[in-house]
Each structure stands twice: as structure tokens, then as C-alpha cells.
Design goal:
Helix content: 40-55%
CATH topology of one domain: Glutamine Phosphoribosylpyrophosphate, subunit 1, domain 1
Number of helices: 28
Radius of gyration: 25 Å
Shape: globular
Strand order of the largest sheet: 2-3-1-9-8-10
Largest sheet: 6 strands, antiparallel
Structural class: alpha+beta
Distance between the termini: 30 Å
Strand content: 15-25%
Length: 635
């Protein structure tokens, strides 16, 4: 796990400037660093840099940038290729000098070309310079586990694992893209290909970018839509066969992710996904696996006893840390530094705390990320199934409420909240993205400072008709795999773990496991209302049912209490007219009135769609980020 950055520019970037860019990511790779410059025709210079967190081959032979034996290929790379040893056997004619996976990338490219990426089982963000072809390739793993930003302007390219190196690049003009603000406020994250800045983009998961002769071209080598469309045509219709094949694939995925030359452990919440990963890791370990969990003094949020019970049953070396609100509040001020783009999923705070705990003993930790999206685990999926059953009735109510006279009487506004949601859900492209009361309109109203001619992204993702499935549950799961999983869940874990130079690995997101999941009939995942049914049944092969069967709590953060209490004065400062006017990003009068109303409302809006803690928190985090990188910067 590392951080990478670089450029292809005509304008000069000195070695010291490249090093400064690279060192903004020290936390991603404290063990080693490297920066090198190369020539290219057309007056271009190529700079490649990497910060290294040593996981495999801890010797100097793993240093990057890494060159091919003939110096034709140069690579900087962040991530892990888990099947590198298998690939190495197929590449036996290459004169390997190290035992690390980076050199396998070089050898694979020389033998198979850029299509070699389809053979990689791993998480990665790769920058590869082919000096003979005079092309630079940027490559991101299938599901977007590893981040990769790029700034393209005036036929020049700058790239990095985070935004900070790009912000530190000479001549970078940090112009905020107003068009993403309303979607960010609503979704609480910014999804690929967009970023918070104009002309800066995230390379999409499963994509390749090529820079050559001043032009860029991007294409996909893997996508959720295509993988699902292909695999679902070959369903495994026998339940026991599907279960056993999935179990075998998961076991292999876990064993591959236990390859490391440094201490390794697992996150353990006591839920199905982390417990299953931990149980499989214990099977493949010759000693007790190190497991880590955090607990809350607030009983409604505390899952520590469940994690402890699973750890005791499996015989792991378990470490538990109890935290309180003070511990979490201390983390709030570090959010913009390590999530260097506005990111407002509040579970990032306890995630950072459990990563901090794990890093005290290990350098690699396995997580259960991906189980909910691929096996129908979220509560929203139940609501989606109900909404599909009521959709026709909702359409009738909507049409009735829009008849002349009835519309003027405002009948639809007087319907119960849930009835309004179903009746108003008429857009075919966003059918599974209903709810949230007035959130969409309020998010748009807050970000109302649009310059003439600028585009504003819709707060929802208007893409659902592109998914080849009529079942709303499956469609929403596919949408979440394309958006929420890489844009929120994986981003959260990447930044939280990298804050402490910890590598997080996700066996459930193994490419073979993902592809096979699309062959599993949905009825095996959502069986008579039982979410994640097939995954649960596999877990029961390792852990008694009574240790796992319980309501899911998740990481809880008391946003209302914080925003109306210890963060209140800071929030009010962010709504001051002068501050908002100087920003010229938000509607000053609307924001001030809305935040003031929220602070005075208390909890009265709960259950009605009128509680705006998520929206206000997203605004707070944005302003915190803005203050860190713009208001208080020397730029």
C-alpha cells in the first residue's frame, strides 16, 4: 500500500517540487520514497513518484519508481496484486530481480500489453510509462478500492492517489466545481469521475487512461453492468452448489490476502461479514489471528460484546477499545487533512479509531467491506422491494393528486410522509433512490450560487435504466456497487487506514468472488425477507448461529447532539454572511435560515423526513475542508 503521483508536462516541475508533492502523502508510505524525471518528445517531461508502505519484499529491491530490465518500462504503483506468484510462473522468461508484485506488473505488460490488467487479482492504482511507445497509462482496479485522481488541462496531465499532491503542483489553480455541490450535500461524497475541483477527475473503477501526444483517452476493462450482464446469463441454480462454490472462492480470497511480510490481522465487529472473514483467516493461520474492535459506552451503538463473543469462539488474539464522544470529537478536526476532498459519512470517525487501534500491532488488516452491496444487506433494499410492489398504486395517487382542482388544493402535500414518497417517485431513472423528504430540494437550494452556463449535477444518479434488470432490489444493489461502494465505503476505509499507514484488504471484493456473485440467483441472497441469506449460511459453517443473529447496529455518531452542542459555534461561524459571501458558493440567506431552523428544531423532525442532520453535517464538513485548504492556506 502506497501513494503515487506524477506528471506529464511541458511546464517545468523541479525535482524538489515533485518531492514536495510526493511528501504530502507521507502517511500513505512512511517506509521509503522515490522521485524520478524522464524525457519525452514534444517538449514533455515525465515525473514519477511514490511513497512506500512496505508489505512484500521489504528490501530496497521493492523501491519505486521501478524499471524493467531493459529500462523501457517504468512503474509507480499503489496496492497489491494478490495472484502475483501465479503470474510470475507464467512469466518465467523475465529476468526478475525482486520478489515483489510491482515487477510482475512490468513483466506482464511486456508480455501481454495493457490487457495484462485483466489478469490482475488485486486492488491497485498504477501509473506505467512506456518509454518506447511514449505513452503513460493510468489504471485503477475493478471496484475502485484504490483512489486515483488526475488533472488534465492544456494538454498536460498531473495524477496522484490523493488531491494534496495535485494541489501542491506548481501552476495548479484550485477552482471549486460548483456543479458537484448539491449532489455532495445530498450524497455526502463525490463520486467518480467528478471531484471538488474543475478539470480534476477521479479515474473510474475498472478504467484505463492513456496519455499520448498531449491527448488522453479512457476506456473500461471491467464494469459492474457488463460483468453482471455476462455472469447472470450463467446462473448456478442449485443452492448447495452455489453455496459451496462461493465458500471455496471466499476461502481462496482470504488466503491470498494473508500473503504479507509484515504482521496481519482483521477488523471484527461481530457482524456476519467481518466474522466470516475472520473465521476463514483463522483457518489459514498457524496462530491466533489478531482481531480488533471498538466499543461504545452508549449501549444503543455498542457491538463490542458481540465481537468479543465471536473472537472467544474462534480463539483469536482479540483487542478491544472502548471509546466515548470525546474520543470521536477529537477526530473531527483531522477529517479534511486526510479526506482531502469533502467527505461527510460520519462513520469515518469510528473507522479511523479502529484503524488507529489495529496499527499499533499490525500493518495489514482484512475487512468485510462489500458484503452488504453484493449480497443484499442494507435495510434500504427491503424498502426498495416494498416500493416496487406499491409503485403502481403510487402512480395512481400521483395522477389523482395532479387532477385540476385537486392539485390546487395541495392534497399530495397533506399525505403521510411515506405515501408522499411513493406517489412522488415517478422518474424511471431514479426509481430505487426515493425518500429523504425535502433533502434533494434543500441540497439544491443551499448550493444555489451557480454561475451562468455552469452545469449542476442532479442529486440522484439518473442511470437506472442502463442496468439490465427489472427487480428494483438488484438494480439498487448494482447502483450501489457503481456509486456508494467505491465513492463512500471504500474511500472511507482507504483514507482512514492510510491515516495510520495501515493496509486494508477486502476478500469479499476479490474479482472472482464478485463475478461469481452475479451468477448467484437473487433469491439465494434475499430469501423470504432474509437479507444476505447465502452469506449467513456460509458463516454458520464456522460460527454458531446464536452468536451472529442480532439486529445490525453499525458505527453510530450522534450528529444532532454534536451539531447542537460542542460544534454549534463552529457551525454558526460557517454560516456568517461575510464568510458565505466571500466563498460565493452557497446561497447566504437560505443557508443561514435553514441551519438556524435546524439548530432550533431539536429532534421533532425524526421519522417525518424533516430532520436535516445529514445535510447540515455535509455542509459543516465542506466548510471545515474549505477552511483548511482555502481560507487558511497561503495559496
Amino acid at each position: 500500500m502506497c501513494g503515487i503521483c506524477g506528471y506529464i508536462r511541458r511546464r517545468e516541475v523541479t525535482p524538489d517540487q515533485l518531492k514536495k508533492m510526493n511528501d504530502t502523502m507521507y502517511h500513505r508510505g512512511p517506509d521509503d520514497s522515490g522521485e524520478e524525471l524522464y524525457g519525452m518528445s514534444g517538449g514533455y517531461r515525465v515525473g514519477l513518484a511514490q511513497r512506500r508502505l512496505s508489505i512484500l519484499d521489504l528490501s530496497v529491491l521493492g523501491h519505486q519508481p521501478m524499471h524493467s530490465a531493459d529500462d523501457r518500462i517504468v512503474v509507480v504503483y499503489n496496492g497489491e496484486i494478490y495472484n502475483f506468484r501465479e503470474l510470475r510462473e507464467e512469466l518465467a522468461d523475465y529476468p526478475f530481480r525482486s520478489d515483489c508484485d510491482t515487477e510482475v506488473i512490468i513483466a506482464a505488460y511486456l508480455k501481454w500489453g495493457i490487457s495484462c490488467v485483466k489478469r490482475f487479482n488485486g486492488m491497485f492504482a498504477i501509473a506505467l510509462f512506456d518509454r518506447e511507445e511514449e505513452a503513460v497509462y493510468l489504471i485503477r482496479d475493478r471496484i475502485g478500492k484504490k483512489p486515483l485522481y488526475y488533472w488534465y488541462e492544456q494538454e498536460e496531465l498531473v495524477f496522484a492517489s490523493e488531491l494534496k499532491p495535485i494541489m501542491a503542483c506548481p501552476d495548479f489553480h484550485a477552482e471549486i466545481d460548483r456543479g458537484v455541490l448539491s449532489r455532495y450535500l445530498f450524497q455526502q461524497y463525490i463520486n467518480a469521475p467528478d471531484s471538488v475541483y474543475k478539470n480534476v477527475f477521479k479515474l473510474a473503477p475498472g478504467a484505463i487512461l492513456r496519455f499520448q501526444d498531449g491527448r488522453i483517452e479512457t476506456w473500461s476493462y471491467w464494469s459492474v453492468r457488463e460483468a453482471y450482464a455476462e455472469a447472470s446469463e450463467m446462473p448456478v441454480t442449485a443452492y448447495e452448489e452455489a453455496k459451496e462454490q462461493l465458500k471455496d472462492l471466499l476461502q481462496r480470497a482470504v488466503s491470498l490476502r494473508m500473503i504479507a511480510d509484515v504482521p496481519l490481522g482483521t477488523f471484527l465487529s461481530g457482524g456476519y461479514d467481518s466474522s466470516l472473514v475472520t473465521a476463514m483467516a483463522q483457518v489459514h493461520s498457524g496462530e491466533p489471528v489478531k482481531t480488533f474492535s471498538i466499543g461504545f459506552y452508549e449501549e444503543n451503538y455498542n457491538e463490542a460484546p458481540y465481537a468479543r463473543a465471536v473472537a472467544d469462539y474462534l480463539g483469536t488474539a482479540h483487542t478491544e477499545l472502548m471509546i466515548d464522544e470525546t474520543d470521536m470529537l477529537r477526530m473531527v478536526e483531522s477529517i479534511p487533512k486526510y479526506y482531502d476532498e469533502p467527505f461527510a459519512d460520519p462513520s469515518q470517525i469510528p473507522t479511523m479509531l479502529v484503524c488507529k487501534l489495529a496499527r499499533e500491532q499490525v500493518t495489514v488488516a482484512l475487512s468485510g467491506d462489500g458484503g452488504d452491496e453484493f449480497y443484499c444487506g442494507y435495510n434500504i433494499y427491503e424498502k426498495v422491494a416494498q416500493a416496487q410492489k406499491l409503485d403502481m398504486l403510487g402512480g395512481l395517487v400521483h395522477n389523482l393528486c395532479n387532477l385540476p382542482g385537486i392539485r390546487q388544493a395541495g392534497l399530495e402535500k397533506r399525505l403521510p410522509f411515506k405515501a408522499r414518497v411513493i406517489a412522488g417517485n415517478r422518474d424511471r431513472e431514479t426509481k430505487t433512490q426515493f425518500g429523504a423528504g425535502n433533502y434533494p430540494g434543500m441540497a439544491r437550494a443551499m448550493a444555489g450560487r451557480m454561475a451562468s452556463g455552469e452545469r449542476a449535477l442532479p442529486v440522484h444518479y439518473p442511470v437506472e435504466c442502463s442496468y439490465p434488470v427489472g427487480d428494483w432490489q438488484v438494480r439498487r444493489m448494482l447502483l450501489d456497487m457503481d456509486t456508494y461502494l467505491p465513492g463512500d465505503i471504500l474511500c472511507k476505509m482507504d483514507r482512514a487506514s492510510m491515516k495510520y499507514s495501515l493496509e486494508a484488504r477486502c476478500p469479499i471484493l476479490d474479482p472472482d468472488v464478485m463475478d461469481f456473485s452475479y451468477r448467484i440467483p437473487h433469491a439465494f441472497k434475499y430469501a423470504s425477507g432474509d437479507k444476505k441469506h447465502i452469506l449467513k449460511e456460509i458463516a454458520y459453517d464456522y460460527i454458531p448461529r446464536e452468536l451472529l443473529e442480532r439486529p445490525k447496529k453499525g458505527f453510530g455518531v450522534p450528529l444532532d447532539k454534536w451539531l447542537r452542542g460542542p460544534l454549534r459555534e463552529q457551525l454558526l461561524c460557517y454560516t456568517e454572511y461575510g464568510f458565505l459571501k466571500r466563498q460565493n458558493l452557497f446561497d447566504e440567506s437560505y443557508v443561514k435560515k435553514m441551519v438556524g431552523s435546524y439548530l432550533d428544531t431539536g429532534d421533532r423532525g425524526r421519522g417525518t423526513g424533516e430532520n436535516y442532520s445529514g445535510l447540515v453535517w455535509a455542509f459543516f464538513v465542506f466548510q471545515q475542508w474549505y477552511t483548511c485548504f482555502h481560507e487558511n492556506s497561503n495559496r
